[in-house]
TrEMBL record, chains A, B:
UniProt KW Signal keyword: no
GO molecular function, one term: DNA-binding transcription factor activity
InterPro entries linked to this entry: ArsR-like_HTH, HTH_ArsR_DNA-bd_dom, HTH_MetalResp_TranReg, WH-like_DNA-bd_sf, WH_DNA-bd_sf
Record-annotated HTH arsR-type domain positions: 30-125
Pfam families the record matches: HTH_5
Classification via PROSITE patterns: HTH_ARSR_2
Protein known as: ArsR family transcriptional regulator
Organism per entry: Streptomyces resistomycificus
Length: 125, 125
DNA sequence: TGTCTATGTTGACGTCTGTCGAATCAAGTG
DNA sequence: CACTTGATTCGACAGACGTCAACATAGACA
């Protein structure tokens, strides 16, 4: 029901390892290596179908959804599978087969890292 | 050239107020229209060269830099111009010619809207 | 076993994208 | 004016991308 705000991915904000690939975009110019890493993630979300799939998974109850629940995005089933694979390869989703269905789940740390990239916070820490 | 243009990511709702194009990715599944808008922005940052250029501008003094200061990213000058144009078309940068040089500047509100997309925190900001 | 449903993989096709060299435009200087 | 430097546009090309139909695979169930 209330899947807003109670997602498991918003819990870890304390002192957990979040794999900080890069500093905020506004902190200093990215190196070529940092840009390569970060661009891979942005690129994965740079397609409308993938963005809808990712959003569908992320907003689903428990931050997890089976393909059957999110595959109504206007493209064929193989295309859905193709995009889910891309999101998985980009490290944004993980998948797990449980019986008949395959469940996809967001990677909270990556989402947090991406959000930090776009943070304008001075963060003089 | 023009410094005031309608940014794709923001919908003007008043004199100065702007509203984000989309809710956080985790709030609810994106509609096709929202995904189209947001994906355009992610796509613009989905290239390493563009990401470096954007980061270079965003981290430069005053959030502004001339092309001559940021064009050392390993590609030819036409390619740099090509990518800057893409970032501009995506609404992430604005440009202005002052004498000999052309200065690019980040759009803070757009950056904030992007960050909000990836924010898991509740809306009570 | 066999069949049905749910996903993933393969191969192919048209389109988009990143890149460069050359030409062009814009502004300053002599 | 001609000349130089900074920046964009043009034309072309190789490679990547999104899409689908067809096929393959995994599990459930009779």
């Amino acid at each position: 029901m209330s899947n807003t705000r109670v997602l498991p991915l918003l819990e870890p904000v304390g002192a957990e390892a979040v794999a900080p690939c890069c500093p905020p975009l506004t902190e200093r110019p990215f190196t070529a290596e940092e840009a390569e890493t970060a661009a891979r993630m942005f690129k994965a979300l740079g397609d409308p179908v993938r963005l809808r799939l990712f959003s569908a998974v992320a907003s689903h109850e428990g931050g997890e959804a089976c393909v059957c629940d999110i595959s109504d995005v206007g493209v064929s089933q193989p295309t859905v599978s193709h995009h889910l694979k891309k999101l998985k390869d980009a490290g944004l989703l993980t998948s797990e087969r449980r019986g008949t269905w395959v469940y996809y789940r967001v990677e909270p740390s990556v989402l947090a890292a991406m959000g930090r990239l776009l943070t304008i916070a001075p963060a003089a820490s």
